[in-house]
Design brief:
The chain has helices at residues 5-19, 93-104, 165-177, 187-193, 209-215, 242-254, 256-266; strands at residues 61-62, 81-86, 114-120, 126-127, 133-134, 138-139, 148-151, 180-184, 201-202, 220-221, 227-229, 233-236, 279-281. Helix 2 (93-104) runs parallel beside helix 6 (242-254). The protein is built from seven helices and 13 strands. The protein is globular. It has a single domain, classed as 3-Layer(aba) Sandwich (Rossmann fold), CATH 3.40.50.880.
């Protein structure tokens, strides 16, 4: 039987369709033979869970927050706590916004909550290191009394800011009157320059341990921990760890349930899984009266 041209073309087209699968890669120029299909990649083994790095003084460490707690007994009931954030040119976004978000979110879960605002030396707009323009709420001259003073890190925290006498004097005076003082990353240098860390346990950004120890030998430096809590003073490594110290203080002030709700909104597991977070507390051994918690508590269950 003789085949017509149309029948021959149809047969050739069918053979070509069966021989070459659809969506295959284009053959490299000059190739004469289809490459063999690559074997399916072997799934990588599950990564080992990161292990917490031991602190300088393991006896003070806790790796989880334990059982739930309620609000601090001496928490004001007739007004919000006021959290004032010191902002200057060159401040780093992460150390400013991580704790700012955590404290601000108390408005959704606590009554009264925390009133959050920013303070710059002159009240004029500042620009963060990463370029965000911030208009402060207050200046040194008109800022209200502050319950929680927060000192984020900035470009000048280890040098230029330490020479600013008005700034250091304000931090010294405001920090002395505050209920709590928090530094993030190299903000610890500002607290140390103001004399607030003399004789106190503290930490800072890991790359700057040696510099802090040399410049401020009166500081009881703790290393390889997310943060240090002395009762009144809280110092953090900074960066993404800035969330942890703020969540920890919210737990102490408002209770674990409020911290859990804030964590749910920010996608921060709280309490963190055992071993996820290492920190140091030093206010379990009888602390000075002015910094003692209102009620005795197990520091591993703040």
């Amino acid at each position: 039987m003789r085949l017509s041209r149309d029948q021959i073309a149809l047969i050739l087209l069918l053979v070509a369709f069966l021989a070459f699968p659809a969506c295959r890669p284009t053959e490299p120029e000059g190739g004469t033979q289809a490459a063999a299909p690559a074997p399916a990649p072997t799934p990588p083994p599950p990564a080992a869970a990161p292990q917490p790095v031991p602190s300088q003084q393991a006896a003070d460490d806790t790796s989880d927050l334990g059982s739930a707690t309620g609000p601090a007994p001496d928490l004001p009931r007739d007004r919000p706590l006021r959290a004032g954030f010191l902002v200057v040119d060159g401040i780093y976004n992460s150390e400013l916004m991580a704790p700012y978000d955590v404290f601000q979110h108390t408005v959704f879960h606590a009554r009264p909550a925390t009133e959050v605002f920013t303070v710059s030396p002159d009240g004029k707009p500042i620009t963060t290191f990463e370029g965000i323009r911030v208009t402060p709420t207050y200046s040194f001259q008109n800022a209200p009394a502050i319950d929680i003073l927060v000192v984020p890190s900035g470009r000048g925290s280890m040098d230029v800011d330490l020479q600013n006498r008005a700034l250091i004097d304000w931090v010294r005076k405001t920090g002395a009157a505050a209920r709590h003082v928090i530094s993030l990353c190299d903000g610890a240098f500002v607290l140390a320059q103001a004399g607030l860390l003399d004789g106190a346990a503290a930490t800072t950004f890991p790359d700057d341990y040696a510099r802090l120890a040399k410049a401020f030998p009166k500081v009881d430096l703790r290393i390889n921990v997310s943060f240090v809590d002395t009762g009144k003073l809280l110092t953090s490594e900074g960066g993404a760890r800035s969330y942890e110290v703020a969540m920890h203080l919210v737990d102490r002030l408002y209770g674990t349930q409020v911290a859990q709700q804030i964590g749910k909104g920010l996608l921060i597991p709280w309490p963190p899984p055992p071993g996820r977070m290492k920190y140091v507390t030093t206010y379990s051994a009888p602390p000075p009266e002015e910094t003692a918690p209102a009620a005795a508590s197990d520091v591993s269950n703040p």
